[in-house]
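call fold(seq) -> tokens
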Amino acid sequence: MAPARAGGLNMARKSETVDTTPPPPVSDEQVVSYLKDHANFLLDHPDLLGKLAPPSRFNGGPVVDLQQHVISRLREEMEHLRGCAEHLITTSRSNMSTQTRTHEAALAILEAGSMTGLARVVAEDLPALLDVDIATIGFEEGDRPLPIIPGIRTFPRDFLEQTLGAGDVMLRSSTTGDPAIFGDGAELVASCALVRLDPKDLPNGLLAMGSRNERGFHGGQGTELLGFLARVVEDCIQRWWLED
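ret:
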């Protein structure tokens, strides 16, 4: 019979312990020693320069330390530039998103295939594609009869001149929806974009979009993409007007 192992099989193992004692704080001497051994540390981490407090060359008295003043100004400028950069990045991302949405809306309009399809795309697809709450399209009464199509609104003569004046695009913030433009959905509108449609040899029209957000549309926004979308709609109208 083999001799029994020392301690036997039932010997309990000593539990391993983990040292949870926090490390001691770094001393000034350690920091100084590290920086001496790594002379390029601040070159590799320039952001730290704006966080450090350099010593004053003048301790009290009537002398003003311009070095401290200049460094303070540089820090303020750095913070301002950082804020401008973040704002630019945010704006660029928002513009790219809006551009992508507009292109998708243009493709949906081109695929409509008829005035009936156009009315459906405007009412059903554009709100989701352009992140608005309601979209409508309509034309002024004139010498030529307007197509009788559900979803296409009819405006009296000179309605666009009274609404838009001489401009092609109007952005309104903190407003109420006009029932003549938005119908029963006017109560949804707290801001809106109104875009003139001027198809060649056809009645003038209006493409309108409304948002519940009071700042969804406002005067500070660019109108180039809205103008582009209007040109796409005009081209489709000229091709489909007589087909329905």
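The longest helix spans residues 66-110.
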